[in-house]
Specification:
Blueprint: H1 3-88
């Protein structure tokens, strides 16, 4: 074989190698894109769950405040009743 044929054969192999590497990079890029989309969906879902948890916690806080308000009103009413009973005796 002449030098030109050897050089052409080497270039042919290099082109094949580069083509394979290009295909691998393309596949890797597609995988990274799918991963990024998955992470984005997961982030949206987590944000949604955080909002729901915050709403539930706020409801619980409101319920506790309502219960404490009722208890405080009952105690205050009892104290006022006792004071009035003592005064009116």
């Amino acid at each position: 074989m002449s030098d030109i044929e050897v050089t052409l054969a080497q270039h042919g192999e290099q082109i094949k190698t580069l083509f394979k590497e290009t295909q691998e990079v393309k596949q890797l890029t597609e995988s990274v894109q799918r991963l990024a989309m998955s992470v984005e969906r997961m982030t949206i879902e987590l944000t949604s769950q955080e909002k729901r948890i915050d709403a539930i916690e706020d409801q619980s806080k409101f319920k506790y405040r309502t219960v404490w308000s009722c208890v405080a009103s009952a105690i205050l009413g009892a104290v006022v009743s006792m004071v009035m009973a003592v005064i009116l005796k």
